[in-house]
Design goal:
2 copies of one chain form a homodimer.
Chain A (H helix, E strand, L loop, with lengths): L3 E3 L4 E4 L7 H4 L5 E5 L4 H4 L2 H8 L4 E5 L8 H14 L3 E6 L1 H13 L8 H5 L10 E5 L11 E6 L4 E6 L7 E4 L9 H19 L7 H23 L4 H13 L14 H13 L3 H15 L1 H16 L6 H18 L15 H12 L12 H9 L3
Parallel strand pairs in A: 2-9, 3-4, 3-5, 5-6, 6-9
Antiparallel strand pairs in A: 7-8
C-alpha cells in the first residue's frame, strides 16, 4: 500500500427532509449567495424548500449556471459576491453548480491578477469563501471533495483545480431529488460515478485489499441499483444507494494508498470542450479504448475486475480482458449511453485535433504509469470509431 | 436506507515515516501533553521518533496510562494539564491511551462538578482541548472517532462517552509499529475490529447496499490479512491492510444509514469490569451467544453474512445460521482467542451478577431492536459456558 493523507471534513446530511437542516449549519449573520442553474429547482420544489430554510438569513440569488460551467458566468457571480460583501456560498444543483461555487469561492478572494490562472497555470488557492451544497443530481461527487472543473468558452478550454479550501462545509443529499430527474441525467450520473471508481481502481495492484474491495463495492452497487433508478426514479431506496455511491466514489476514501489513472477524464474533457458531448458520455466513449490500449500495464487489475465485478473467469487472460471490456461497454449501453465516437457523429479529424491540444498543453504521458503518450491517445481514440 | 449525518474531520497520515509529519500539524506556540502508556514506546523506537518530531515545541510528558484506562489516572493528567496551561494533547499509544486522552481533553475544561458525570450521567461535553494521536496498536478505531471508554476501579465501572469535540485533529497510522507488537495484541486487534463491523452490520436489512458491501469488505480483508500479520508482524503490507481495516471499522462510514447493535460490547464491558478479561476477548465470548439467542431477528443478515463472508449456502436457514456461528467462532479461535467463559475460568455466578448490574444501570432492552432484555442477556451468557 502507498503512503497517503486522508482528510475530508464535509458534513453529510443524508436523507428525506434534510434540506430544512441547512439553517442549523449556517451562521446567523452570514451574507449568503444562493447559486443555482437553469431553474429546474424552481419546478421540482427544491428552490422552495431551500428558501424556506433560508428564511431570516440575508441572501442573494444568482441563477443560470450552465452545464460545464463557464469562467465568464462565474466571474459575474464573483462581482455580485464582492459588490455585496457576501461571505458564504450555498450551491443548489448538480456538479456544474457546485463546481462553479468552488471557483467563485476561490476567485472572490483571489489575490493574483486573474483567477483564471488557478485553472490555467495551477496557481495555488490561498484562501476561499466557505461553501455548502444541496445536491440535486448525483453524479460527480463534487459535494464531498475539493475538485472543480471550469470551462472557458472563448478558448474552448475545460480545466480543473483542486483545493482543500473549497471542500464544502456541508452537503445535503436528499435522494428524493432524483424522482424529478430526466433519464439521461440519471444514466450520466451512474456512468460518471462508475468511471470515477475505475480511474482509482483499474491501475496496478499495490496490495491495498480494503481499498480494492471498497471500490468494487461501489461498482457492484451501481450495477445492481443503477438500472432500478433508471427504471423508476421514484424508487427511494435505489435512489439512496445510487446517491451514496456517487459521493463515496470520489470523496478520497477509495483513492487512499493506491495509484490513480484519470487518463479517461483527461481525454474525455477534450471531447466536451470541442464537441459539447456530456461529460459522462465522453468517459463511456474513452474508457473502453484506455482498457484496450493499456491492457498490458493494467492486466492484473482488469483480471481482478473481470472476476469480482463480472464473474468472468477464463484461463486465457486476453479473452478475460476482452470480455471485461465488452461487459463494461454493454453496461453503459444498457443505461442508454452510446460508447462510440461515431454514435455522436464526431469526425475522424477530431483525433489529431485532440492530440495536438493535449501535446501543446503538456497533457501527455498520463495515466498511473505515465505511459499514455501521443501514440496511445491516438490509438485510444481510433479504437472508439 | 435510514437518514444519517456523517461528519469526520480527523486527518489521517498513513504510512512509513509519517510520525515526523506531526510537527506540521501542531501550532508553534502550543503547550503539548505527550501522553503514553506503560513505556513500550520507549523500547520500540516510537518515543524517539515522536520526541524528535516535537523538537522545538514545549511539551510535558505523562506516562503510565493502563489498559482499560482509569478515571483516577486520567484525573492526575488533568491536574498536570491545568497546572501548566497545556492546550493540546498528543496521545501516543493504543486505544487505552487515546481514550484516556479524549477524557482528559474533555475533563480539563469541564464546567460541572465532577467530570465523571460525563460518563456516569451522560453530561454533555461542551468543550474540549484539541488532540492528535500516534497509533501504536491497531484495534479500537478510536484514532478516527469521538468515542472513549473509561474505567473507574473503585466502582468496578467501565463506561463510555461520545463527542465530536474529542475527535482527533490528526492521527498518524504507521504500520511499522505493528512489527513490535505481541501476538496477543494483534489477535485482539483483529477480533476487536471484526466485531466492531459486526455490531454495525449484523442487525436487520434496510436496503443499504453500499454500507453492507463496505462492512463485508472489512470483514473479508481482516479474514484474509489478519492471519498473515499474526504469522509475521513485520509483513508491512498485511499490517497496513489490517491497520486501515481497524480504522475504517469504526470511523462512521459503515454505520451511516443502518441500524446498530452494540449489545456484544455492552455485555462484554461487564466481563472486563468484573474479571479483567481483555476487551476483544470479551467480545469473542459474547458475540456467538448474541448470534444464537437473537437469530430470529437477525436472520436475514446472518444469512447474508454466511453467504458473502463464509460462502455458506444451505437451503435450511437454521443450518446456515449454525454454520455461520461456527465459522465465526473458528475464526477467533484460529487467532488464538478463546471464546468460552469457561476458558477464562469465570464462575457461573457471574451471569446473575452481570444481569443485576445491567438491570440496575438500565442497560437492558439493548440491541438494534431493543429486544435484548434480562432473559436474553442471561441466555446469551449461559450459552457461552
Amino acid at each position: 500500500m502507498n503512503n497517503f493523507v486522508f482528510y475530508n471534513h464535509t458534513k453529510i446530511l443524508f436523507g428525506k427532509g434534510q434540506i430544512s437542516a441547512i439553517s442549523d449549519e449556517l451562521t446567523d449573520d452570514s451574507k449568503i449567495l444562493l447559486l443555482y442553474g437553469g431553474g429546474s429547482i424552481k419546478r421540482n420544489g427544491i428552490y422552495d424548500q431551500v428558501t424556506e430554510a433560508l428564511n431570516g438569513f440575508e441572501y442573494y440569488e444568482f441563477g443560470g449556471i450552465e452545464p460545464n460551467p463557464s469562467y465568464e458566468k462565474c466571474m459575474k457571480a464573483v462581482d455580485l459576491v464582492n459588490d455585496n460583501g457576501i461571505d458564504f456560498i450555498l450551491a443548489v444543483g448538480g456538479g456544474s453548480v457546485i463546481d462553479a461555487a468552488k471557483f467563485i469561492a476561490a476567485a472572490a478572494v483571489y489575490d493574483g491578477e486573474d483567477p483564471w490562472d488557478i485553472l490555467a497555470h495551477n496557481e495555488p488557492v490561498e484562501d476561499a469563501l466557505p461553501l455548502g451544497t444541496v445536491l440535486t443530481l448525483p453524479a460527480t461527487g463534487t459535494e464531498m471533495n475539493g475538485n472543480a472543473v471550469i470551462t472557458r468558452a472563448e478558448f474552448k478550454e475545460k480545466l480543473s483545480f483542486t483545493s482543500a479550501l473549497v471542500l464544502p462545509l456541508f452537503s445535503v443529499l436528499d435522494p428524493e431529488v432524483i424522482a424529478s430527474l430526466p433519464k439521461i441525467q440519471i444514466a450520466n450520473g451512474i456512468t460518471d460515478a462508475f468511471i470515477h471508481v475505475i480511474e482509482q481502481y483499474l491501475t496496478y495492484p499495490v496490495n491495498a485489499k480494503l481499498q480494492d474491495r471498497m471500490a468494487e463495492s461501489i461498482l457492484l452497487t451501481l450495477i445492481e441499483e443503477g438500472p432500478k433508478v433508471l427504471q423508476n426514479s421514484a424508487d427511494y431506496d435505489a435512489g439512496a444507494n445510487f446517491m451514496w455511491c456517487t459521493t463515496m466514489a470520489l470523496n478520497g476514501i477509495i483513492k487512499s494508498g493506491v495509484p490513480e489513472d484519470w487518463s479517461t477524464h483527461q481525454i474525455g474533457h477534450e471531447l466536451t470542450a470541442l464537441h459539447g458531448i456530456d461529460h459522462a458520455q465522453t468517459l463511456a466513449i474513452v474508457l473502453p479504448g484506455v482498457m484496450k490500449v493499456m491492457k498490458e500495464s493494467k492486466k492484473d487489475k482488469i483480471v481482478q475486475y473481470a472476476k469480482r465485478i463480472w464473474q468472468i473467469e477464463n484461463t486465457d487472460t486476453n479473452v478475460t480482458i476482452e470480455q471485461a471490456i465488452a461487459k463494461t461497454i454493454a453496461f453503459f449501453e444498457s443505461l442508454g449511453i452510446k460508447t462510440k465516437l461515431s454514435d455522436y457523429k464526431i469526425p475522424i479529424t477530431t483525433i489529431e485535433e485532440i492530440v495536438e491540444r493535449m501535446e501543446e498543453r503538456g497533457s501527455v504521458n498520463i495515466g498511473e504509469n505515465k505511459l499514455i503518450g501521443i501514440d496511445e491517445i491516438r490509438k485510444i481514440l481510433k479504437s472508439r470509431f
